[in-house]
Amino acid sequence: MTSSETPALVIPQLIVGLGNPEPKYERTRHNIGFDAVEMLSNSWQISLSDNRRFQGVFGEGFDPKRQKIRLLKPLTYMNRSGQAIRAVTDWYKLPPQSVLIIYDDMDLPVGRLRLRLSGSAGGHNGMKSAIAHLGTQDFPRLRIGIGKPGDRKPDANSVSHVLGKFAPDEKPIISEVLYLVRDAVELSLKEGFQKAMSLYNGRSVVETNS
After folding, report:
1. 69 backbone dihedrals φ, ψ, rounded to 5°
2. Which of 8, 43, 112, 200 shows a CA-CA span of 20 to 30 A to 190?
3. Active site (catalytic) residues
């Protein structure tokens, strides 16, 4: 398949949420991918457990359409996420196009989603690693907005921002966003990722401030 061709229907078989292990990183902005996978795990009643072979927390079960689906939270730390992803795709012989990666995006405001079928890492270390290990940029991804450092604290830097927790007034928004993520993912499994893109790209759970 050439880069100019688009697959007829992209149906995820492996859903990966990016984040960092260790309790100190729990519920931080950079770990929103982990939170999304946990939401799917709970909704679909797929238990997650440590898997040494896959270097991550892994679960296998069925989506709402009773199709086989796999969930992964890499425990390799963000900049080596691709190792865990490649371990799963090699074991199950999955093509890169069947891997949906969910992660945080500073360029999107809190409450906003963006879905793409392919693209660069955009400076995200977890995605750089995923692209390097999968050997292609052509796989679906769902980005969840975490806002820019200066949105709330003018003197904040990128590292403290992404590794910080959401503010109290942002937490209800994030809870809603995760339900929106679930709905988008379920639609992609039912009707293809392209359909989910057409309905959920640019969707936000908050009204844009004038």
Report:
1. -140, 150
2. 112
3. 30
Residue 53, sorted as left (phi over 0), alpha (psi -120 to 50) or beta, turns out to be alpha
pLDDT category at 125 given cuts 50, 70, 90 is very high
Beta sheet of 56-62, edge-to-edge order: 49-51, 56-62, 68-74, 14-17, 99-105, 141-145, 113-116
CA distance 26 to 75: 13
Q: Is the pLDDT of residue 3 over 60?
A: no
**What domains can you pick out in the chain, each with its CATH number?**
14-200 (3.40.50.1470)
What is the spatial distance between Cα 54 and Cα 112, in angstroms, rounded to a whole number? 30
Q: b/e map of 125-151 (b: 16 or more CB within 10 Å)?
A: ebbbbbbebbeebbbbbbbbbbbebee
Q: Is 38 left (phi over 0), alpha (psi -120 to 50) or beta?
A: alpha
Q: What is the DSSP letter of 122?
A: T
Give, rounded to a whole angstrom, the gap between the first and last alpha carbons of the chain: 44
Q: Is the pLDDT of residue 197 over 70?
A: yes
Residue 206 token pair: 């908050």
Tell me the pTM.
0.91
